[in-house]
UniProtKB/TrEMBL annotation:
Similarity annotation: Belongs to the hexokinase family.
GO terms under cellular component: cytosol; mitochondrion
Catalytic activity annotation: a D-hexose + ATP = a D-hexose 6-phosphate + ADP + H(+); D-glucose + ATP = D-glucose 6-phosphate + ADP + H(+)
Alphabetical list of PANTHER family matching this protein: HEXOKINASE, PHOSPHOTRANSFERASE
Record's protein name: Phosphotransferase
């Protein structure tokens, strides 16, 4: 009977190959000039046109805003030692009322905290370039121009949606008038993850996050990014792969529990792939399975405790802890007010293992799509590449990373993939994006592209 609950979560290698093939089609839709508007996988250009080459150097600031706190950092890139050093950092709180106030208040607060940081670290006299990790849905129009599409995560500041957040930050700094910043680079957290690993390992061309949410970015050939002018070189694409399946293409592998998790979420019908994989939802999937099994008298003598019956109370971290040992499982089941037997504890471990394994295998299928795409783009028989990874599910779960790596090897046999855990992608990584954008070759490239863009109509006339 237990098997009937578990088997819908067990995906065969053939099913994973099929998932990978479906994502491959969705990547193309997202990259297309006319199809990207309706594509569930958005494939957003980041205007990051290169990965680190080891020549980057200097001092940089980084701002990281993605929740109720934001961080300010001073980062030094040392070419000789090939190191990215966090010199100093400071965390600033954002009060609840400010999250719902005006955009001007929010950016004035950020500019004040940045000013205080520069003052206390004697950096006010310098004009340092700044990397800005802003973890909200944005449409990026240039490396230093990013329009907020909508607020999420409890923010709802007026006068920001539809506006360029770089401009809002610069205006707030200008209103103060007591310090200056250099050029600004907008950074998505997956790109930061890739770049923070890219200084240590210059073959790092993919960034992946498996934490509260999931997403990935990779280096794509510019000629394939149809909404960007240009033929030569590469650009990092933020896939936003959490939205895979939003058009119903994964409905055949969704279980009744996935459907329930989606239905009761704050954004039903959106981010279907993410809801099968990420830390925000895994605990709830396990809870729903355990509740159903208990109702069917397969667990806990048919008695559902108040905690088990309450949405959100079975935390994703419990999965890691339960899989780590039977003693942990017993402790957690007791804390949840359940009358358990040894058989119950073993079955709960099996349920946790099944659901976390499915998450790892689905991630592997998606990652295989990206590495195979890079290999085919470059017409290589064999690709050697590195993936920079971050996120609590990947870092904290006892077997997630090994299962994911094993499955990717199976699904992308012609790719040799190294996995590097990122060090502070939204801080050091953001500084690295800025450092790469400062490189002379990168600067002249941008100038060239702008010149071509300006001259083309003139040349066509003459």
């Amino acid at each position: 009977l237990t098997v009937s609950f578990i088997s819908p979560f067990q995906l065969s290698p053939e099913t994973l190959q099929e998932v990978s093939a479906r994502l491959r089609k969705d990547l193309l839709r997202g990259l297309g000039k006319h199809s990207h508007h309706k594509a569930p996988v958005k494939m957003l250009p980041t205007f990051v046109r290169a990965t680190p080459d080891g020549t980057e150097k200097g001092d940089f600031l980084a701002l990281d805003l993605g929740g109720t706190n934001f961080r300010v950092l001073h980062v030094r890139v040392e070419e000789e030692a090939q190191k990215v050093l966090k010199m100093d950092s400071q965390i600033c709180a954002i009060p609840q009322e400010m999250m719902l106030g005006t955009g001007e208040q929010l950016f004035d607060h950020i500019a004040t905290c940045l000013g205080d940081f520069l003052e206390s670290h004697n950096l006010k006299g310098q004009t340092l370039p700044l990397g800005f990790t802003f973890s909200f849905p944005c449409e990026q129009l240039e490396i230093d121009k990013s329009i907020l599409i909508r607020w999420t995560k409890g923010f709802n500041c007026s006068g920001v949606e539809g506006k360029d957040v770089v401009q809002l930050l610069k205006e707030a700094i200008h209103r103060r008038g007591d310090y200056h910043i250099g050029s600004v680079a907008m950074v998505n957290d997956t790109v930061g993850t890739m770049m923070s690993c890219g200084y240590k390992d210059q073959s790092c061309e993919i960034g992946m996050i498996i934490g509260t949410g999931t997403n990935a970015c990779y280096m794509e050939e510019i000629k394939n990014v149809k909404r960007i002018e240009g033929e030569d070189g590469r650009m990092c694409i933020n896939t936003e792969w959490g939205g895979f399946g939003d058009d119903g293409c994964l409905d055949d592998i969704l279980t009744e529990f996935d459907v329930e998790v989606d239905k009761t979420s704050i954004n039903p019908g959106v981010h279907i792939f993410e809801k099968m994989i990420s830390g925000m939802y895994l605990g709830e999937i396990v809870r729903l399975v355990l509740v159903k099994m208990t109702k069917d008298k397969l667990l806990f003598k048919g008695q559902i405790s108040e905690a088990l019956g309450t949405r959100g109370l079975f935390e994703t971290k419990f999965i890691s802890e339960i899989e780590d040992g039977l003693e942990n499982a017993k402790k957690i089941l007791t804390e949840l007010g359940l009358d358990w037997s040894l058989v119950d504890a073993s079955v709960v471990r099996l349920v946790c293992d099944t659901i976390s394994s499915r998450s790892a295998y689905l991630c592997a299928a998606a990652l295989a799509t990206l590495v195979n795409r890079i290999r085919n783009n470059r017409k290589l028989g064999h690709l050697k590449t590195t993936v920079g990874v971050d996120g609590t599910v990947y870092r904290k779960h006892p077997t997630f990373s090994s299962k994911l790596q094993k499955a990717v090897r199976l699904l992308a046999p012609q790719c040799d993939i190294t996995f590097l855990v990122s060090e502070d992608g939204s801080g050091k990584g953001a500084a690295m994006v800025t450092a790469v954008a400062q490189r002379p070759a990168h600067q002249s490239r941008l100038l060239e592209e702008k010149t071509v863009y300006i001259l083309t109509p003139y040349l066509q006339k003459h």
